[in-house]
Design goal:
By secondary structure, the chain is mainly α. The chain is built from 6 helices and 4 strands. Helix 2 packs antiparallel against helix 4. The longest helix is centred in the N-terminal third of the chain and has 28 residues.
Length: 191
């Protein structure tokens, strides 16, 4: 079974480049995709013989992450990608630049897992956390992107960045509790 990819409504050169109208259009489209993307992930897993209960309980994140960790694939960055990164960062950071990246094969699952992770937070926050986006300041990492809002101190949670970061860590050391622990950490910031 081929995994159905999530195709954005329009092409862009990065979220920071979107204007307010485009950010709103993208956000509205993304929100309409949520239930379908979780259904796509669930159907794929069932087809693979995996029975994970998508009941929005925090504990459901554990078997989901365990399955995902078995499917993480890294690939080598191209020479062009490495040169671009070396040119972008100061000399003292160059030793930290990885020569590998998370494969598209992995990210196609990860982006839907990020949606489910966000929905678990929303459904367990007593109505305090929900999807939103912001268009300013432009220098913010998650500008114009769908994020979770409503946390203490006006913090925003970008579930896609959380999953990418956890994926990188899990590629080095497996921990089926990793995403569940992230859930617990972020729930501490709910009033």
């Amino acid at each position: 079974m081929e995994y159905e990819l999530m195709i954005p409504p329009f092409k862009h050169q990065g979220f920071a480049e979107l204007n307010g109208k485009q950010a709103k259009e993208y956000f509205q489209w993304y929100i309409r995709q949520i239930d379908h993307r979780i259904e796509v992930l669930n159907k794929y897993l069932l087809n693979q013989g995996e029975k994970i209960d998508f009941d929005y309980s925090p504990e459901s994140l554990i078997p989901l992450w365990e399955w995902y960790e078995r499917n993480i694939i890294l690939e080598n960055k191209t020479e062009e990608e490495l040169i671009s990164e070396f040119n972008k960062y100061p000399e003292w950071m160059k030793d930290e630049i990885s020569t590998t990246k998370i494969s598209i094969h992995t990210l196609k699952f990860g982006m839907d897992i990020a949606i489910y992770f966000a929905q678990v937070i929303i459904k367990n926050s007593s109505g305090k956390i929900d999807w939103g986006y912001f268009t300013k300041p432009k220098k913010m990492m998650s500008v114009n992107q769908p994020v979770l809002l409503g946390f203490k101190a006006n913090m925003d949670l970008n579930p896609r960045l959380i999953v990418i970061n956890c994926t990188r860590h899990s590629s080095e050391e497996k921990d089926n509790m990793r995403l569940y622990q992230m859930y617990k950490t972020w729930m501490e910031y709910v009033d």
